[in-house]
Hints:
With 406 residues, this protein is mostly helical. Helices cover 70% and strands 0% of the residues. It has 16 helices and no strands. The two termini are 108 Å apart. The model is unreliable at 16-23, 45-58, 97-118, 127-141 and 401-406 (pLDDT under 50).
Amino acid sequence: MSEKEQRENAEQKKPGPQASPDAGPQEDLAKALAEHQAAASDEPAFDWMAGGTPATSKDASETVAKSVGQQQSEPRQAEQNQTKQNQAQRNQTERGADPQLKPTTEASGKPLAKPESANQSEKLDSSTTHQAQPLTQPEVSTRTTMLAVRPPAEEVDRRVSEREQAAQSRPVWPGIWQVLIAIFFPIVLLALAIRAIASPVFLWIEYNRPGFPADSFGFTSDDRTTFGSYAVDYLNNFAGSRFLGDLVGGQGAKLFQDSEVSHMADVKGVYQISMLIGLLLLVLMVVGMFYLSRRSVGGNRRALFAGSIATVVIIIGIGVFALLGWDRFFTDFHQLFFANGTWTFRLSDTLIRLFPEQFWTDSAASIGVLVLLVSILTLIFSWPTKRRRQLAAKAQKPSQGRRAAV
């Protein structure tokens, strides 16, 4: 046996390095290079000794590296393809497309074919995800999806009809304020007329007018004006019953008896309550008219027009009832607010001498005339003429257009 053969047998008997199960790609590459060099040791030393073009060690290294790199790059390429496909499916879902459809290429429109390695990696990834992480729904842009889906025709018609009704419908509060102002108007007007009568000016006019009956017990017009002014002032101030109870007449006697002072206290209570109600309703009317002036074109005019009509009807009805039976009207009025026996007096009592029956007749007539006059003037100035209706309709169209646009 030659020396060369002995050396080869010794090298074959040497134990080679065993690759560990955890050896990386670099160890595989080194092992392949070592095997290739051992196999190429018997090749000719020069290229001209071989019949063809020999593979050099450099070329062999490149070949082995390419093969190993190809084996390593296959799983990475599969993962990249899977990532691209998932991104394409997510994009289609966000655009409103069916997520179950397969992604297609932009040029051919054919579905992309998945390699076997990609399918295997996808199965591994899905199994790992199911084991490690909980199921989560992908985030989908709800707004974009809803814009891409058109509602049914019935739903579109329903929305259009609701939009038209909203444009044609009127707000509720302006109508409510118009009704309230129409109701408050006659009450406020009556309270103002009573306040105008309960004044020293009306007393002076009444006592000095021609035809007013004289006092048969000696009161002159000046006496009536002076003592009557005390009674009127007592109604309008916050003084107690001593304001009238301590007054004395010409001979030093008390001017008003206790029964008269008690009745005037009752009258004062009813009078002040009615004035307070009238003042409160007046404030509400002002607030309502201010609201209508900003929210409803022609709302104040319509409210005052309705209120003036109601006031005219009420005053005419009360006036007819009073003319047909004044005594019955006067009695029913006092029985409504005062207890029986507290409002009847003798002819010689001061209240009857200052405020005879003619005074109450003139007072009622004056209140009715004032209320009727103001109501008629309000009715004339708020009458819905053709020009006023046209202006209100013209001003109302832009406001409805703004509400429909909103």
